[in-house]
Structures are given as structure tokens and as C-alpha cells.
Task: structure prediction
Amino acid sequence: MKRDALELLLRNIEPPRGRAWHGGVTVVGALRNVTAREARRVPRGGRHGIWSLALHLAYWKYAVRRHLVAEPIPRFPRSPSNWPAVPRRPDEALWRADRALVAEEHRRFVAAARALDPARLTRRPPGKKSWTYGELIAGILAHDAYHVGQIQLLKRLVR
Result:
């Protein structure tokens, strides 16, 4: 039964044909064909733009992956970690590098989730953690869906 639960989570992390259950794209798909200028644009009121949201999503996949794997993981390459700083001006090379970071953190997260023993889904990571491994993985799915929706809306607003 736990193997089925893990498989369900994995199908939602890495959906067939890149389309999530709700019909929307994944994080990596949402960033496809977004220019640095579009990604750097910040909505009024100091809200987060596409670039900021993309790095935030990469960070949280990294943060949860740290709990899923046994070996130490190097620090997240951007800072501050939860909402990494974005360049002041659009830069296509930096945007390509950050999109690659998002894709790589996604790939590493998927690999860590695939390697998880299904028996651990209902267990909590060591320490005083409030969430089980399964809840952490499901949380990433919800987090992705929420912020990808924001990215899709921001793309329409900046174009």
C-alpha cells in the first residue's frame, strides 16, 4: 500500500507529458520561453516576480531533499536561501543558469523521492520535525502548484 502511495506522489512530481493533474505545466515547463526581462519584472507592491518565484521553488525542493537523503548535501548555491536575490537588471545568461538550477533541483528532488523507502512515508525525519516524509513530498506538490499558478498569471501580465 505504501508503495502505491509513493508511486502516486511520484507520478504527480514527474507527470506524464509534463502536464500536472490539474492540466497545468510543471515548474520547469512554466519557465520555458520566459525571457530574462519577463522573469525580472516585479509586480507593483513589491510582490515576487517570476525569477524570484522560480528560485524560491528550487530552494524548497532542495530543503525537502535534504530530509529525504542520508548523505550531507552542499549549501544551496543562492542566497538568501528561501527567497534568493535576483539580478537588478535582466541578464539572459544568468536567467539561463537559474532556470538550469531550477531544473537540476527538480531532477535531484525526483531522484531522492524515487529512492525513498515507501515504509518511511509515514515516519518523521530525525529531530523535532512536524511533518512526515510523505507530507513533505505532498507539500512540495502543493507548493509547486500554487507558485506555478502565480508564474502562469505573471507571464500573461508581462506579455
Summary: DSSP finds six helices and no strands in the chain.
